[in-house]
Amino acid sequence: MTPEEMVLDPFSFAADGREEEDSTGERPQPLTAAGALTEPLAGTVPPVRTIVLDRPPTPARPTEHREAVRLAPAAAGPERLSLRDVSVAYGDKEAVKSVSLSIHQGEVLALIGPSGCGKTTLLRTLNRLTELTASASRSGDILLDGEDIHDLVDTTLRSRVAMVFQQPNPFPMSVFDNVAFALREQSRKRPGKRALEPLVIDALRRAGLYDEVADDLDRPALRLSGGQQQRLCIARAIALRPEVLLMDEPCSALDPISTGVIEELIHELRRELAVVIVTHNLAQAHRVADKVAFMYLGDLIEYGTTNEVFEEPRATRTRDYVSGAFG
Ligand code: ADP
Ligand code: MG
């Protein structure tokens, strides 16, 4: 816990000393300093507490320095996906027009742009889900670690380039079995529960869910809150150690607290893989992304670091979009 959280952890004031759960079943997150300013706890008067720190508090840095820290790009790792002149059409209607992009491990790439501009189509093309649509056709090259994704078996590709959808979609089975399902599918001999347990626990841990479900991994996944279900879907996707994680508006069905938890998780996950997230929410792109690609009517209009695209966009259309002139 940071010193800031120690001061502002209102949930440790619960009358009976237990942590409380909110109506969604999510464990409430400690309020941050900013959160506490905007969300006073209605009707709660916290008792006075003495806080003992084991070291002196770190003085706040000047604003300019903090900004520099926040905007420092992640250390980009190796290129995972390379797109060259990728176009996708439904019948004769082009949805994605000649897009070239490079996607690196250690980075979160946000695809932004108004509705209907081809973001989902582009994302689904990266693990060949678009080919399940009969009218869809594609041209151009997509390489995963230098290999054409069309030379891979589709299920292998989808375990290496995994996807999390807008609506959490856990299978109607236990928490454990949801994660184990992916691992069993990928294995020739069907491993037993005992063999899978460490892998399941590891995936739940990396998805930031384990502590909340550890007491009963056999509970039905559909009993979890929306935010927990989405983290379970992330655990299922990362259990197979994909190189790329695709997320299509993963927080749009979630409350702000669960959204915050998932955004933090995305930050953590980029250490081990490349993340591509489609988001309608510009503030979210600003918070989570290292790179931003702005799409408009199927064209990739602008691509750059988050700072470049938001603060110094080159194209007028990007400037208008990020300033909220249209959506
Ligand atoms: P976004 O995710 O940016 O909202 P989409 O990729 O969903 O955009 O859609 C891009 C364009 O492709 C839109 O004009 C949409 O109507 C069209 N489209 C998407 N899916 C299909 C489909 N399955 N069949 C036909 N047209 C589609
Ligand atoms: Mg979409």
Low-confidence stretches: 1-43, 61-73
The CATH fourth-level homologous superfamily of the largest domain: P-loop containing nucleotide triphosphate hydrolases
Structural class: alpha/beta
How many discrete structural domains?
A: 2
CATH topology of the largest domain: Rossmann fold
- Give the helix proportion (percent range): 25-40%
End-to-end Cα distance, whole Å, is 39 Å
Which keywords apply here?
disordered N terminus; 4-stranded antiparallel sheet; binds magnesium ion; 34% helix; alpha/beta; Rossmann fold; 2 domains; 6-stranded mixed sheet; single chain; binds adenosine-5'-diphosphate; 327 residues; globular
Describe this structure in words.
With about 325 residues, the protein is of the alpha/beta class. It folds into 2 domains: about 5-60, no CATH class; about 80-320, 3-Layer(aba) Sandwich (Rossmann fold), CATH 3.40.50. The chain contains 13 helices and 10 strands. Strands 6-7-8-3-9-10 form a 6-stranded mixed β-sheet, sandwiched between helices. Strands 2-1-4-5 form a 4-stranded antiparallel β-sheet, covered by helices on one side. A hairpin with a 2-residue loop joins β9 and β10. α6 crosses α7, α6 packs parallel to α9 (about 225-240) and α7 packs across α9. About 35% of the residues are buried. The chain binds adenosine-5'-diphosphate and magnesium ion (MG). Magnesium ion binds near residues 119, 120 and 278.
